[in-house]
Design goal:
Blueprint (H helix, E strand, L loop, with lengths): L2 E7 L3 E4 L2 E2 L4 H11 L3 E5 H6 L8 E5 L10 E4 L2 H7 L7 E4 L1 H7 L5 E7 L8 E2 L8 E9 L9 E8 L1
Parallel strand pairs: 1-7, 1-8, 4-5, 4-7, 5-6
Antiparallel strand pairs: 2-3, 2-9, 8-11, 10-11
């Protein structure tokens, strides 16, 4: 099962200048719980936004740059290559950014989407639109705004129909 995992605003905003638009500690915790021990597939800019590779995960980095090499990254040049390398993982995760999500959507079986309740006008990166005709919402968990979370949000799990 190939899963896309993302946090997106009400208008599918993901980030700006290769950073997030919000700080949601409980969402980070959930991301870690879901992705630990799995392959995580991302673009070069997403990989470079991490201070260091995330522990206990295999980082597959998609880039057009044939000479790109970084410690902690397995470099590939297409989504197909990334999926081939991760084929023995029961659930590789596509973790972004925007272009990588667009590339991954046709291959995905599941979307773990944290819908952040807010509109973020400064965003320059977006999660792709996906058709409710092809995807079914199977789970929804609300998380209220609190002292650690400036925005309320909802964990949504979608599967291909």
């Amino acid at each position: 099962m190939i899963t896309m995992i993302a946090a997106a605003g009400e208008n599918n905003e993901l980030g700006k200048d290769n950073g997030l638009l919000w700080h949601l500690p409980d969402d980070f915790k959930r991301f870690k719980e879901l992705t630990t021990t799995h392959y995580i597939i991302m673009g070069r800019k997403t990989f470079e936004s991490f201070p260091k590779p995330l522990p206990n995960r295999t980082h597959l980095v998609i880039t057009r740059n044939k000479n790109y090499k970084k410690p902690g990254a397995v470099v590939v040049h297409s989504m197909e290559d990334a999926l081939e390398i991760s084929k023995n993982d029961s659930q590789p995760f596509i973790i972004g950014g925007g272009e990588i999500y667009k590339m991954g959507l046709p291959f995905a079986d599941k979307i773990e989407l944290t819908r952040v309740h807010g509109a973020f006008k400064d965003a320059d990166t977006f999660f792709p639109e996906f058709s409710k005709d092809h995807w079914q919402l199977i789970s929804k968990t609300e998380h209220a705004k609190d002292e650690k979370h400036k925005y309320s949000f909802t964990y949504e799990t979608w599967i291909q129909k």
